[in-house]
Every structure is written in structure tokens, then in C-alpha cells.
Amino acid sequence: MINFLRTNLLHISYLALAWIFCLVLYPKVVFAEEVTQSKVRKITYPIPETPTHYHVQTNYYLDVLKLALARSDVSYKLEIISIPAMSQSRSSIYIQRGLYDIHWLATSEQRENTLNPIRIPLLKGLLGLRIALINSKNPNLLLEASNIDGLKKLYAAQGHDWIDTKVLLHHGFRVQTSSNTQSLYELIIKGRLDYFPRSMLEVWYEHEFFNHKTLIVDENIAIYYPLVNYFFVRKEDVEMHEQIQLGLLRAIEDGSFQNNFDAYFKQYIEKANLKNRKIYRLQNPFISPKTPMNDPKFWFKLPVE
After folding, report:
1. DSSP of 194-248, one letter per residue?
2. Which domain of life does the protein's organism represent (predicted)?
């Protein structure tokens, strides 16, 4: 009888210890799962509802963001927000209002005062290398201008809220603006404007997208001024800013940023034939002094004239 009691007491003791052990450990397991779940952050990013002439860049920027998020130290769940086509000024306002968390925008001091830029040029500085669309009736128009003073006598087409417009006007160029890119094409076709400087990374696929037989891509000159696109977030999104910047730097270091860039744009860089173009270089007085101009890993190296 005594042995039976001892055996049962011993068994009960083991059960009690096991139960206490579970009570102690189980909350830790639940807590660990909760911590893991809490580390997954949602990040919202806008994509146009319908394809636009920016569709190549749209896909490129999304892929760059995915590269950065995959290399950050925080787990992010990317959520795409569908939006109508809009100006960059409007998108800037939407970020401030919290309609989405992050978007690419051309930088300016004013934009950097209202939002927080991730200061890594997404297009390696080639946003500011401009090649013009011209009317096919006068294929040598820009060549015949012979110098920058001759170029300034011609009328350039630009978007009404673009930094490019301010840069060209600052340097004495004649510029006519519109909020509608298609209308600017039409004005060149009708001969009311002379040329439409576009980034060399967008000019050819835009030409194909609008399919205007009357327009051709100029083969003779290029205009360059420092101009960059950054990802922008709200001022208060400090962690998101730090993590995406970290992810972008890691993507540059491991080569995936360059590989993605080449996959989208190498064909256009080769097509530009920069070594055989006359490149007019302009200053951009509207770019922030905080732009990392002296860090070569961020920039495409232009041919030396």
C-alpha cells in the first residue's frame, strides 16, 4: 500500500512538473509568434490603373522597390494601390495625406522639404540626359542650331510642373508647357513647337507607345543637367526610410541593382550612341545640395568630351 502511494505521488509530481513546465514555456512560444507577426510591416505603393507612356519606368521602379524590401532588416508586405494617371505634384500630396506610403518622384528642394527622400538616384542620373523628339520633316533641325545659343532660339516642349521646365527657363531656353504629354506631341507634329527633350531612357519607348509616324528621335545632340528620381516617404516614416535605403545600398553592393537597371535600359543606352552626340551640359540650380553628386556608385559615367 505504501509503495502504491509512493508510486502515485511520484507520478502526480511528474505530471505537476510537466504542467508547470508547459505553463512556463507556452506563453513564450505564443509571444515569439506574436513578435514574428509584429515584425511584418505593410507598405503601400501606387500603380496606374491603365498603362501609360511611363509603363517601362513604372515596372522598373516596382522591381527596384522589391529588391530593396527583400534586402532590408524588416519583413515588409507590399500592397499595390491602383490610382489614375496623375502628375508628380499630385502624387506628392497623396503621400503626405497617407493615401500610400512611398512613390518615386523627381527631386527638388521644395519636394524634399515636405517629404523625406531616400537619396539614392533610381536612374543613375540619366533622368537628366535629354534626347529630343523632332518633326521628321526637318531631321537636322538641332544639328543646324550648331551651338547652345542656336538651340535656345528654338521652342521646346515640357510638362507644366516638371523640374526640367524650370532648369531650361533658368538657362534662357524658350519653353512651352502643357499638363498633357500627348498634346505636346501634337504641337510638334503641327510645327508649333520644335523639339521635345525626353530622358534617353524613355524617348524610344514613348515614341513607340504614341506611334506618331511624323516624329523621329534626333540623332545629333543631347542636353544634360543633374536631375534625379528618388523614392519619397513621409517625414514621420523613419524606419521605412532607413530600411529601404539600407536595402537599396545592399542591392547596389551585390550587383542586383545594376543587373535590373541593365535589363530595362541597356538597349536604350546603346541606342543613344552618346559618343557620337554633342552633349550640352547645364547646371541645375534647383537640385538640393544634399544630392550625393560625388559618390560614383550612384551615377552613370558620361563620355568625356
Report:
1. -EEEEETTTHHHHHHHHT-TTEEE-SSEEEE----EEEEE-TT-HHHHHHHHHHH
2. Bacteria
Give how many domains the chain has, as a whole number: 2
Q: Are residues 217 and 78 in the same domain?
A: no
**What is the C-alpha to C-alpha distance for residues 275 and 304, in angstroms, rounded to an integer?**
8
Q: What is the pLDDT of residues 158-203, one digit of tens each?
A: 998 888 999 999 999 999 999 888 889 899 999 999 999 999 998 9
Residues 111, 249 within the same domain: yes
pLDDT band at 31 (very low <50, low <70, confident <90, very high): very low
Q: What is the pTM of this model?
A: 0.81
Q: Quick one: 121 and 232 in the same domain?
A: yes
Q: Which of 182, 204, 224 is the last residue of a domain?
A: 224
Beta strands in the chain (DSSP E): 40-48, 75-83, 102-106, 116-118, 129-135, 155-159, 174-178, 195-199, 215-217, 221-224, 229-233, 278-281
> What range does the domain containing 104 cover?
41-125+228-254
Burial 102-124 (b: 16+ CB within 10 A, else e): bbbbbbbeebbeebbbbbbbbbb
Answer yes or no: is pLDDT of 33 > 60: no
Q: How deeply is 216 buried, as exposed, middle or buried, from its count of CB atoms within 10 A (0-12, 13-18, 19+)? A: middle
* Domain annotation covers residue 264: no
Number of CB atoms found within 10 A of residue 133's CB: 24
Cell of 47: 500603380
* Three cell numbers, residue 125: 542620373
- What is the SS3 assignment for 42? strand
Q: Note whether 93 and 136 are same-domain residues.
A: no
Residues 119 and 191 in one domain: no
Contact 260, 61 (CB under 8 A): no
Q: What is the pLDDT of residues 98-112, one digit of tens each?
A: 999 999 999 988 899
Instruction: Give the SS3 label for residue 115.
Output: coil
168 contacts 285 by C-beta, under 8 angstroms: no
